[in-house]
Write a structure and sequence with these properties.
single chain, alpha/beta, five-stranded parallel β-sheet, about 55% helix, about 10% strand
Length: about 270
Amino acid sequence: MMFIITKKIHTFLRTKISHKRKVESDTQAEKSVRKSQLSCVSPTYDQLDHKEHLESPEPVFIAILGPPASGKGTICRDVQRLLNSNPRLLVTTISTGEILREKLENDPDSNESKLIKKQMEDGILCAPETVLPHVFSKIETCKQTAIKNGQQAIFFLDGFPREIALLDAFQNKFGSLDALLNVLCDDNTAINRALSRKDEKGNVRSDDTEASMKKRLNTFRYSTTPVITKLNDDDKCIVYPLDGTASKIDVVNNALASLKLSWPQFMIF
């Protein structure tokens, strides 16, 4: 099953890159023939015309969604570190949670920060107008840097979009997401992880309590599950499930394996 899913991703995204997001209306039989042909002639990195592929590449947007404490941040951090060993890539993780926590740290006494802190502890999603300007600004900055350096921009959207309003706003500005890594994790595992984790400074997050986690899990089911359902129905977005209860190494390796098959011309490690 893993082989079939990853080959589907490989075929879909190679077609998207070469045809610049053109949606094809082939019959299922034609798609099967093309899939077979592509798998037989997949070029190596050294055989590709780098200038053709990297002169004006379109950015690639990959959302990572899953319950709180399901391992989304770990996947983004480790895969980004590995992909950025390729100088032809500019891989950026955009985490709405980190954006909000940074705002709390830099400006803890503002009315907006106090509201954000209360919403996070209560497991309530912050308003789109609070999140979107920061997300869009970072995307635009990284896009311009990639264009200037002749790099392929790849964005990992950690925990974004968490609700339909955010998805609609993103699609109106940047178009469809290219892929979704859907991290699957049961409530007990997520709660136990949250209660035992600490940040880089050894501090426990204020929203990593059992009561807060239960609220956040309910919010995820109510607000984010519809986003995953909508992306599942979007022919332009490939949804790739990941077992978030597996070991860290296995989860990261599975995510990386799908990306290697999806973008073979950019993988040199």
